[in-house]
């Protein structure tokens, strides 16, 4: 098969082709190595790993030849550069981790390799996963493969897993893993026209993932289709005794849940998500989503999530608070960047000032402030209480409905540089995605249509804790109804 | 009383109020949140996991054994065990604190109120309240003396489990503080939860000291950090109380401060003031779930606790008929109590206690070793006491044999046999010895018979010397009196 036709296959199709020996894992991987090189202008990767990929592909071919194929044998996957990969530079998109090569492999990537997946490279991201645009990386911004028709300004891929999303959308990875702390898988998936799933908190281990905000960080899969992420999730999920917040629950065959049958399911439509200033096309797409699900036999139910309006403010207290503490370890003493000073304090100050970008510094400052004596009760403690109330909102709703349908983001992708000087406008990107992080619930973004200026828009399904199966089932029905077949302006192999 | 002695007549006017925060290193093969080893004295940075070094993405997992040790300690301190407690982060920057925060417990500690009973030298007891006990990580060590301009960091200790045991401000003198620490250490050692070794830093003490006129509200306190011996704790408190009293008497006011004890000069000096105090920004550690204990598990631990010093003391008094003072001495260390009980097993407990506290303690002191390294086993000391009881040897001879046992480690019966020290109970042989002495000391015999009774002891001494101390003293008395009378 030609490189181009190899790159057109989705994960499920590629797996079939490999199993039937229509092509080898080495051929598939070589095609993706070329695609990664071709997609270099997108800056989706910080560290491509072509040699490692071929070695892993050869091992997969041996298993495939013996008829002992693993779940993801020979599937080239992009890894957000927040996951520690043994002996391979891991940057978190930050200058402060210069030269850091972890002596360990994160649980999630280890599980992927154990399932036969091939590491194609380490994907670019917002520095320490802090952002909604993948423009704050020390290694430069990620460009979306999409362009507005007739407008050549580069657009953001969304963030923080923007490199992962851009790589999948541009066919420079067959699938990817990301992390989602406030929308960092779903929002870039929406911007890039792919599927991104944030599983339930505790479903996927955080061990070996550079921490941003520990109680909100969720590793998860990104792919071309709902089925692809279901297959990925099966390999990624499971209890990890090294992560105390990991859930000791069995891992279902998520792909088997994709029955296409959602008859009788009750779909919650939260009235509070009709936020002021929501573009008409997003409201219309949301309504279209309701109709698609109704047509498939589900029952839309209006629900109320009254605490939603506090979610963003709550998130921007809790996440920076945890981040300010999580990032204290980057002090120049043991690894990464060190700028020498005349005293210990000066070394700390110089190292952290040089090592952290503006957005990271901003969040460390906010976090330090909200945890300070005299402010703790008014900010952090109150935010924790609101967080509990938000979770209670959802728990109440899920007594009446099986899942909730909303838009993923309040807009399509914007141009690189826009909103960069307006943190609040940037933070508003997360308004629909943050509640699921605060409540730890599974949520997925599915590409559902194009904006008036030709950019992808996603719809989001949120479900009960540890009920990824219903989320995926409804998402697949949505995917089938939406028939999103649009391709970005740039795809590797010259498709489109 | 040290306090009154050094505070002098001020002791009447002033009351010292002391609360102690003890950091006790938990006996555990592995650290509190990582699998790394905890051996003392290992090569620097050889017992460090990526978790301890706070590498990116590393997560803590609580070590169940350390929790068990802390719960057992809480039970041993008659304290309330909290079935739900929370680990929090205490944030501050220092090179020997790799994560930039210490995982500790703050608002919801594992152990709540408890108490320790102190046995005072005058025979009374004092109850000292325990405010709380919580688990936390130790920091690493900064080594400032290895290089002229650089500081080296050794992370072997980073992440080792500590129990912070906080007392109520119930202590009133340096002496009481010393007694409290000894008692606490004894309980920890009985429980096997901390080795109490202050030189190796496995027990460290922060002292909160304030002074007031009796009956008045508490004064402003100063905290003396990280004092590492009981003697220093007492010196530091003593110095600090006097410093505060003098300050107030001279019209000054005590400023809330953190101070350091300078052992070389025997003084405390300021480290940082209240204004310079850290804002630790405590918040619950999101990497750890609340620690929830199964009440049945706690009860099983309670049932399996060893007999602790207070209970053992009561039993020693009732079961062995010892005085409270002797019982105090024997129960202070678990090894001593065990040794004593082995010696007393099937024997008269009083000589057993006397031999342990007298000759044995003396010998151990001279050798500078603990009872667990004693050259004489409890069985051997028991055999020696048996030899006295059955008349094989005299008590006086037994002390010589004891000395020989310390030197050679030999069995007492074997020493008696080898050196021919068996007591002479043959009245013929003793009579012969008496006759020989009296014949040689004709003048003195005459004097005695003329009324110088005091010479009796002289004759006994001469006879014992003649028999190399082996003559049975009772027989000597009986026969000598008869001869002198005759």
Characterize the structure shown:
The complex is a heterodimer of chains A (496) and B (486). Chain A has 496 residues and is α/β, with parallel strands linked by helices. Helix content of chain A is 37%, strand content 12%. Chain A contains 16 helices and eleven strands. Chain A has an eleven-stranded mixed β-sheet with strand order 1-3-2-4-6-5-10-11-9-7-8, with helices on both faces. The longest helix of chain A is centred in the C-terminal third of the chain and has 21 residues, at 377-397. The radius of gyration of chain A is 21 Å and the shape is globular. With 486 residues, chain B is an alpha+beta fold. Chain B folds into three domains: 2-301, no CATH class; 307-419, no CATH class; 427-485, Arc Repressor Mutant, subunit A (Orthogonal Bundle). Helix content of chain B is 41%, strand content 18%. In chain B, α9 (334-344) runs parallel beside α11 (378-389). Chain B is elongated, with a radius of gyration of 30 Å. Chain B starts with a helix and ends with a helix. The A-B interface holds A 83-84, 90, 92, 97, 100, 102-104, 106, 206-211, 213-215, 241-245, 321-322, 324-325, 327-329, 331, 333-335, 344, 348, 368, 371-373, 376, 380 and B 50, 53-62, 89, 91, 93, 95, 98-101, 151, 153, 279, 281-283, 286-289.
What is the element layout, followed by pairings?
The complex is a heterodimer of chains A (496) and B (486).
Chain A: H1 3-8, H2 11-19, H3 25-38, E1 45-48, H4 50-65, E2 76-80, H5 107-114, E3 118-123, H6 162-169, E4 175-180, H7 186-192, E5 195-198, E6 218-223, H8 226-236, E7 266-270, H9 280-295, E8 299-303, H10 311-326, H11 344-355, H12 358-371, H13 377-397, E9 403-407, H14 423-427, H15 434-439, E10 443-450, E11 456-463, H16 468-482
Parallel strand pairs in A: 2-3, 2-4, 7-8, 7-9
Antiparallel strand pairs in A: 1-3, 4-6, 5-6, 5-10, 9-11, 10-11
Chain B: H1 2-7, H2 10-13, E1 15-25, H3 64-76, E2 84-85, E3 87-91, E4 101-105, E5 114-119, E6 125-137, E7 141-143, E8 152-154, E9 161-167, H4 174-191, E10 203-212, E11 222-227, H5 230-249, E12 257-262, E13 267-273, E14 283-284, E15 291-292, H6 295-303, H7 309-320, H8 324-331, H9 334-344, H10 349-367, H11 378-389, H12 395-408, H13 412-419, H14 427-440, H15 442-449, H16 455-466, H17 473-485
Parallel strand pairs in B: 11-12
Antiparallel strand pairs in B: 1-9, 1-10, 2-15, 3-4, 3-14, 5-6, 6-9, 7-8, 10-11, 12-13
